[in-house]
Amino acid sequence: MSAKKLQSIRGIHDGLPAEVARWRRVEAAAHKVFSTYAFSEVRLPILEPTELFVRSVGEDTDIVSKEMYAFADQGGDHICLRPEGTAGSVRAWLQGGLTRAGAQRWFYMGPMFRRERPQKGRLRQFQQIGVEMFAANGPVEDVEILVMAHAFLSELAIPDLKIELNSLGCRVCRPSYREKLVKYLAERTEHLCETCVERLQKNPMRVLDCKLASCQAELVNAPEMVAHLCDACDSHFTGVQKGLDALKIPYRVNARIVRGLDYYNRTAFEIVSDKLGAQGTVLAGGRYDGLVEALGGPATAAIGFAAGVERLAMLLETLEMAEPDVAVVALGDAVQGYALTQANALRKEGLSVVHCGGGGAKRQFKMADRERARYVVVIGDDEMHSGTVMLKNMATSEQQQLTASEVTKLILTV
Ligand code: ATP
Ligand code: MG
Question: Could you say which ligand is closest to the alpha carbon of residue 114?
């Protein structure tokens, strides 16, 4: 009788070495670029009270109504795995008493959880790199955030990304626009998908970004928020576009960009790749001026974005496996101690080194091959007695007897 094989949960993947190498590259680019904009890293809880997302993301959103991993713990507290990072950031910012402190610019990276239908680029546990800027009135801050997002993706050298920009209006201009939109959609319900008919009741602006072509076809003449902005929102939106123009950052105004979360207003944006099919959005964000107040803080304008690490990783072309610089082959038990010392001497100088484990020469050379080391260091009695190693360049088969420090000098200057 064979036991049933244990598997990870559907839509939840392991980060194996090749994958993690790509994630690290994405993370390194974020650290590098965000620090030049004076953003500081925060590490926030993965478990949060369910109430936090009900009050911020909104009860009628897909995320809260269908996708949260929420449960009562052994003590009866209602908690959940965070589906996104903004609500927790605001909670932490308020709880930490930072509303008057200096550091108003945060970034974070870590896993988020949504029980969606798993597809390529759509997972149930995925990683986001997020950014939040508090007390950011804009439009200069909107421009800075957009430019930073652009710089982050440029650092990763991902080609053919497009910035799509929209304004979602505000409390003043959105309600009357919403009415116009609902009226337009209500006349077309028989052509909309079931989900959109439901959205029409609860969250009509979400219909605008339905991924179905049949729904999109019905939206061709739908009223657009950008044509119904109040004066304040209109001048804000113009300011954002002027800033991007001044920096020669290409973008397109796309009236279909809305955010899935309730708390967004004014600037909304996505950065999209056409190489990932329906899951093409690699980064999305916008302004959420009402959220801090909604969570019990002082009225505070804020803006942020989150990028999907797995989706970005899929766009990175080169596979960065850790290939060692040097594989050490030790010929005979007597030289084993010396070989271990030499391996460490090389590592101390910054080389990556694997030890082929001793035993037969043939087996060790095979391992060196499999590891794809650029150099093999062979150590026998001769080398031990002269305090040297035999360095073999695997590309050219050239061999040289050298000391460990000569080896590092040679490899590091190639
Ligand atoms: P989508 O429209 O693709 O569902 P979203 O509007 O739900 O995205 P956000 O909540 O704004 O996305 O999250 C920001 C980014 O996080 C997305 O642009 C995407 O790159 C990534 N992301 C969101 N959900 C998932 C998921 N289930 N799996 C992988 N990445 C995701
Ligand atoms: Mg989604």
Answer: 1
> Per-residue confidence at 201, pLDDT binned at 50, 70, 90?
confident
Q: List, for residues 294-322, the tens digit of each pLDDT value.
A: 999 999 999 999 999 999 999 986 555 67
Q: Does domain 17-173+229-314 have CATH number 3.40.50.300?
A: no
CB atoms within 10 A of CB 293: 12
List, for residues 122-169, the tens digit of each pLDDT value. Answer: 999 999 999 999 988 889 999 999 999 999 999 998 888 999 999 999
Q: What are the residue ranges of CATH 3.30.930.10 in the chain?
A: 17-173+229-314
Q: Which residues line ligand 1 (CB under 6 A)?
A: 84, 114, 116, 121-123, 126, 128, 260, 279, 281-284, 306, 308, 310-311
User: Is 346 within 8 Å of 353 (Cβ atoms)?
Assistant: yes
Among 50-59, 96-105, 387-396, the least confident range = 96-105
Query: Which of 19, 84, 281, when mutated, tests ligand 1's pocket best, judged by the most ligand atoms within 8 Å of its CB?
Result: 281
In contact, 78 and 49? CB cutoff 8 Å: yes
Spatial separation of the C-alpha atoms in residues 412 and 406, rounded to whole Å: 10
Burial environment of residue 322 by CB neighbours within 10 A (0 to 12, 13 to 18, 19 or more): exposed
Indicate the CATH number for domain 326-413.
Answer: 3.40.50.800
Taking the CA of 209 as reference, the closest ligand is: 1
Domain with CATH 3.40.50.800 in the chain: 326-413
